[in-house]
TrEMBL record:
GO BP annotations, alphabetical order: Golgi organization; protein secretion
Pfam families xrefs: TANGO2 (PF05742)
PANTHER family recorded: SER/THR-RICH PROTEIN T10 IN DGCR REGION (PTHR17985), TRANSPORT AND GOLGI ORGANIZATION PROTEIN 2 HOMOLOG (PTHR17985:SF8)
Protein name: Transport and golgi organization 2 homolog
Length: 284
């Protein structure tokens, strides 16, 4: 039904090996409670601190798209997570691999293209499924939120899902740990003030406790991940010059009201952050 609808999700198809330039992690779930919250998404963006980007804001021909934007030369306009006022939502994570194909297309365009077209999520994912070889490894989540409110059709049943840099719900220790913290935070979401819930979820995304040992990460990342393993194996990654730069919380209620909170690092300094919130109601 409407409550707890999960986004449709797809993993990239066999791609050239990749030297992971960006890791991301996302956990999403729902609070059944009184049935007012349809979707809660909590996500981290992990990236090199010196990679230029814009913080989340409205853009598009009618300011109908809300997202941060990658400003890396040659990949300008791509994004890792975004939502539109018409109810389209997409999120991207990289798939951890030990080498990168430098000639591959920028993965951020996968989210941007979905948000800027009229095609529905399932059709878009089918299209991408035959084009995945053009990119380095990725996971792409796409959803039509208005369908959640009206129809309740789902590719994933109601529940709590975690997505890091492997397949959906791959039991990396940091993902299992993050999901547990997430569930504890949202368990009483229906009786918590919204700002308190958001603050608790930001605390989850900021947890730097390494979850080791984790043979699954070591096997997948091989020699690439070894030098940063003790930092990479945490929900919040904090390495010299690289790590978690952005936390995003998205709440969607049964009336189609969206609260989008972003906490972003300032000036490449892990001790300085700025938080902004955008709220709107989905358009029919």
């Amino acid at each position: 039904g409407c409550v707890g609808q999960r986004a449709r999700a797809a993993r990239a198809w066999p791609c050239p090996p990749d030297a992971q330039r960006r890791e991301d992690s996302a956990t999403e779930g729902n609070c059944m409670g009184r049935g007012t919250v349809l979707l809660i998404l909590a996500a981290n963006r992990d990236e090199f601190y010196n990679r230029p980007s814009k913080s989340a804001d409205f853009w598009g021909s009618n300011n109908e798209i809300l997202s941060g934007l990658d400003m890396e030369e040659g990949k300008e306009g791509g994004t890792w997570l975004g939502i539109t006022t018409h109810g389209k939502l997409a999120a991207l994570t990289n798939y951890l691999q030990p080498q990168l194909d430098r000639k591959a297309r920028g993965r951020g365009e996968l989210v941007t293209h979905f948000l800027t077209t009229e095609v529905d999520s399932l059709s878009y994912l089918k299209k991408i499924s035959v084009e995945g070889h053009l990119y380095n490894g990725f996971n792409l989540v796409a959803a039509d939120l208005r369908c959640i409110c009206r129809e309740g059709s789902a590719a994933l049943p109601p529940g709590v899902y975690g997505l890091s840099n492997a397949l959906l719900d791959t039991p990396w220790r940091k993902l299992c740990f993050g999901k547990r913290l997430f569930q504890e935070a949202v368990a009483q979401s229906q009786v918590l003030p919204k700002d308190v819930l958001v603050a608790q979820l930001l605390d989850v995304l900021s947890n730097e406790e390494a979850q080791l040992p984790d043979p699954a990460i070591e096997d997948q990342g091989q020699e690439y991940v070894q030098p940063i393993l003790n930092k990479y194996a945490a929900v919040c990654v904090r390495c010299p010059g690289y790590g978690t730069r952005t936390n995003t919380i998205i709440l969607v209620d049964a009336d189609g009201h969206v609260t989008f909170t972003e906490r972003s690092m300032l000036d490449k300094d892990p001790s300085r952050w700025e938080t902004s919130t955008h709220e709107f109601t989905l358009q029919s």
